[in-house]
Amino acid sequence: MTKIQIIIGTTRPNRFSEKPAHWIFNEAKKRTDIKVELVDLRDYPLPYYDEALSPAALQGKYEKTEVKKWAEKISEADGYIIVTGEYNHGYPAVLKNALDYIYYPWNKKAVGFVSYGSVNGARSVEQLRQVVIELQMAPIRSSIYLPSQVYMAVKSQKPDDKLSPFESLSEVKDSFLDQLIWWTKALKQAREKEEK
Predict the structure, then answer these.
(1) pLDDT in tens, the chain (196 residues)
(2) Distance CA 26, CA 127 (A)
(3) Structure pTM?
């Protein structure tokens, strides 16, 4: 079955990113045509990239255990959802490092973005699109940008609140998942055909 990983792209204490990550994870789990997995960058504490060669030139020959573990995890998926905030008009350094450290496991796979922050995280997604294209990924057109009112409502939500602030994103979420799954399956079939 097609597998999509949802990557929590921030690691700082008291981060917000795990809230939308868990929301999109639970929504994606309702689909019967995919398997989903939550991947937290906190569980993969990579050193900052300091190899003598580029990730493409290394050709998967990583010496560091943490990097091997990261590459193996990313290799398991057919597509990705990256959940990230916007830090100073960009995305977090820890996410850039995680993307840059490996190359081939990302290739020829679809990716979508869920973002929040200033202008709903749009600037971080704009930059990420350029990066993932260089990694030979296919970023889908749709993204989920959390409006500030949803962000604030989620932050102030109490455990016993019956209605989730994310409910207002139901329509955009369905369209986003439909598009990501279509591209993920199409690219998976193309990769499998190429391997034969």
Answers:
(1) 999 999 999 999 999 999 999 999 999 999 999 999 999 999 999 999 988 899 999 988 998 999 999 999 999 999 999 999 999 999 999 999 999 999 999 999 999 999 999 899 999 999 999 999 999 999 999 999 999 999 999 988 887 777 789 999 999 999 999 999 999 999 999 999 998 7
(2) 27
(3) 0.95
Domain ranges for the chain, please list them: 3-195
d(CA 101, CA 50): 9
Strand ranges (E), the chain: 3-8, 35-40, 79-85, 110-116, 138-139, 144-145
CA 97 to chain centroid: 13
d(C-alpha 75, C-alpha 132), whole Å: 15
Fold of 3-195: Rossmann fold (3.40.50)
Alpha-carbon gap, residue 128 to 107, rounded angstroms = 15
Cα separation, 119 vs 176, whole angstroms: 19
d(C-alpha 43, C-alpha 152), whole Å: 27
